[in-house]
Amino acid sequence: MKLLDFINKESRIAKNRIVIMSIVSGIANSLLIAIINHAAETDFGNGVQARLFFIYLLAFCLFLYTQKFVLSQSMLAIEEALRSVRVRIADKLRRTEFSFIEQSNRNDLFIRLTQDSSLISQSMMLLSSAGQAAILIVASLFYILWISPLSFLITVGIIGTTAFIYFSHREKTRQQLQLARQKENIFFDTLSHLLDGFKELKLNRAKRDDLFDDICKTSLEAERIKVEVGNLEVTDWIMARLCFYTLLPLLVFVIPAIHGEQSDQIYKITAAVLFIMGPISLLIGAIPALNRVNIALDNFQSLERDVDKATHRGGDEPIPAWHDFTRLEFKELCFAYYDLQKQPLFSIGPNSLTLEKGELLFIVGGNGSGKSTLLKLITGLYYPVSGAVYRDNDLVNDANYAGFRELFSTVFTDFHLFNRFYGLADIDQSQIAFWLKKMELHEKTHYSPEGYFTETNLSTGQKKRLAFIAAILENKPILIFDELAADQDPDFRRYFYQTVLPELSRQGKTIIAVTHDDSYFHCADRVLKMDNGLLKPYQAD
Predict the structure, then answer these.
(1) At residue 315, what are phi and psi to the nearest 5 degrees?
(2) I need a labelling partner for 325 at 20 to 30 A (CA). Which of 230, 277, 397, 497 fits?
(3) Cβ–Cβ under 8 Å, residues 154 and 104
(4) Per residue in 490-503, pLDDT tens?
(5) Are residues 342 and 250 in the same domain?
(6) Is residue 267 one of the residues assigned to a domain?
(7) Pair 298, 342 in one domain
(8) CA–CA separation, 447 vs 429, rounded Å?
(9) Is 248 exposed, middle or buried (0-12, 13-18, 19+ CB in 10 A)?
């Protein structure tokens, strides 16, 4: 069973003790019916009733103790296993290539790490009880075997036939569940468009209605598949009930007529079958949950396999000596985006660039010219298809790319604003206050003693300034700003170009700024232009 393999692999809890206690719990539970049956046919006297009652209490207490132990330890084991896998996947995700994260389906990734793990966790109590129910059923079958071998064979035969029918369409159920999962992913993707594009949708009724029709269509398809899966599970349930209600008349009416069973044996067998009716129902009810848990575990494993394929080519540990430089050389760099058929969609290069320490460089160019792609090449987020990168006289390769990336702090156009300064220990509060005031944010937000910004619900321009402060405080030698001034008011824009950037340059910071503000090109040491993927000197029209 996949769940047992998962727990056995990922949890350090003593699984053997859980298995042993489950067996003891099933045996203790079976003893209860055996004691009741024995007491029912025993003439009480000479303390027999007291002894049987005492044995019953011992068996009942043993059952309760082992039941509690198994359930609590199983829950602890599954939660430890889930935590282990989620932390391991998160660790691998932080080491993956940027291209993998860029191309990943975020909704699918979140569903696997949250919804699937919650499904496994919430199902654990039911599945653990079902496991003990299976042990109880086996123990009860042995009790029936002890009473009547023929009744045992018939009982096993009918239960086996029912199990065969279930397993005959188990694969179809699994495929339908996986298909339903895919439809759910599509639904969440479409719902994301509704939330992320709400402004555009609010202004366009036709677009809004069309998207809503898409949501309805996807939901309807998911509903149809889930109903089909539900019908398969209902069939399983009906077959199990049919098994039980076929078994009872056979044991009570048919076998005694053929084999001449005694009435006391019929009573014991019937009591045993009635006793295992509850565990059988529990086991049947757990089958749909087990199907969904298996799908969730498959998704976990496939996610980890996908992440493993994207792990960094040369490791992810930074090289301390590469926290500074004198000159960076980018020679004949080329890069291309490819479609699913490995055909190039867009390419840049060959481009060459030499960057000196303390230089202030502006890069201009139209939309789609390749500026952002060039920045990702420069920072090492993308690997060049061809060409070479040198830091001073050192060739940047797979073995030291991680160290090379440590040279940069960035604010891209699609930047993410963290609510605290991750990676910065012993932050100087006076420096934070200084930069908040310098960026005119001191009245908008503060950095709390608990270590987070008191307010991040700011305008786009203010968020960019806050991200700028975070980049400055990282104290990296190279700063890259992609259209940082685009959402600022004219006064701040002038202040940014004429005061802030030159000050940073005089402090020895190397700055690459993508900009369209030609009024401030004179502030830069150099201005280069990206045109159709090629980097060339800028010439004013």
Answers:
(1) 95, 170
(2) 497
(3) no
(4) 988 999 999 999 99
(5) no
(6) yes
(7) no
(8) 8
(9) middle
The domain of 33 spans: 2-309
Q: Are 464 and 487 in contact (CB under 8 A)?
A: yes
Residue 480 binned pLDDT confidence (cut-offs 50, 70, 90): very high
Residue that has been written with the tokens 């700024």 in this structure: 513
Q: Is the pLDDT of residue 112 over 90?
A: no
Q: Report the distance separating Cα 402 and Cα 489, nearest Å.
A: 37
Residue with tokens 């206690």: 21
For residues 298 and 354, membership in a common domain is answered with no
The mean-pLDDT minimum among 219-223, 264-268, 344-348, 456-460 falls in: 264-268
Per-residue pLDDT of 201-226, as tens digits, reads 877 888 888 888 888 888 888 888 87
Q: Which of 288, 309, 330 is the last residue of a domain?
A: 309
The answer to whether residues 307 and 320 touch, using CB atoms and an 8 Å cutoff, is no
**Predicted pLDDT at 195:** 78
The gap from C-alpha 197 to its chain's centroid, in whole angstroms, comes to 24
Confidence of residue 312 (pLDDT cuts 50, 70, 90): low
Note whether residue 315 is domain-resident.
Answer: no
Find the angle CA(290)-CA(296)-CA(302) to the nearest 5 degrees.
Answer: 135
Residues 384 and 464 in one domain: yes
Are 263 and 374 within one domain?
Answer: no
Q: How far is CA 15 from the centre of its chain?
A: 25
Q: How big is the CA angle at 231 (ends 226 and 236), to the nearest 5 degrees?
A: 125
Residue 442 confidence (pLDDT): 86
Q: CATH number of the domain that 356 lies in? A: 3.40.50.300
Final residue in a domain of this structure, among 309, 341, 357: 309
Residue 314 lies in a domain: no
Task: Find out whether 490 and 516 touch, Cβ atoms under 8 Å.
Answer: no
Residue with tokens 């990336």: 405
Residues 338 and 278 grouped into a single domain: no
